[in-house]
Amino acid sequence: QVQLVESGGGLVQLGGSLRLSCAYSGFTLDDSAIGWFRQAPGKQREGVSCISNSNGITNYADSVKGRFTISRDNAKNTVYLQMSSLEADDTAVYYCATDWGAPFPHCRDGFPVPEFGNWGQGTQVTVSS
Asked: Model confidence over 25-54: pLDDT tens digits?
């Protein structure tokens, strides 16, 4: 059974850092991708970052490039999102999801929300000034 569970959210000051974790089970990253997405109140869910396959291909939304870093620990079946220089606009519920079952991993050339499923429950990130 494919399952993803996020953790690590919380309240952080402007300019601070936070690391989110996504523990996954029931599939491998060898031929699929895991993406981090976020949804702020009143806004659509948007892609933040992704990682895929054994080569560790990664991709980022322009709004987080240079501030966020995605990584994985294969031994722990966990994907991390290290967030630094946090801004007020980063406040949102953060979700991880996978495109497991897709004909190819959706990461290097983009990671559109509709291609991902098996969503976790989300973790709230609030950046305060």
From this structure: 999 888 899 999 999 999 999 999 999 976
